[in-house]
Design a protein that fits this description.
Helix 2 (23-35) packs antiparallel against helix 3 (43-69). The protein is built from 3 helices and no strands. By secondary structure, it is mainly alpha-helical. The longest helix has 27 residues, at 43-69.
C-alpha cells in the first residue's frame, strides 16, 4: 500500500511542478518519510524499508509506462 501512495504523491508533485528528472529522488524521499509512520525494529531498518518502498514505486511507474507505450 505504501508503494501505491508513494506513486500517487510523486504524481501530485509532478503535477504541481516537480521536474520529471527529480521524480526518482522524490520517490525515495517520500518512501523514507512515510516509513517513519510505521517504524521497524531499528531506525536503520525503517530507513531501509523506506528506500525499498521508494525504489519499488519508481520501478513500478517506469514499468507501467514502458508497457503502455509498447
Amino acid at each position: 500500500m505504501a508503494v501505491a501512495i508513494t506513486v500517487g504523491l510523486v504524481e501530485v508533485a509532478k503535477t504541481i511542478g516537480l521536474p520529471t528528472k527529480y521524480a526518482p529522488v522524490a520517490s525515495v524521499l517520500i518512501g523514507v518519510g512515510s516509513s517513519f509512520l510505521f517504524p521497524a525494529a531499528t531506525v536503520a531498518m525503517t530507513i531501509l524499508f523506506g528506500v525499498i518502498t521508494g525504489l519499488t514505486a519508481c520501478g513500478l511507474y517506469s514499468g507501467a509506462k514502458a508497457t503502455i507505450q509498447n
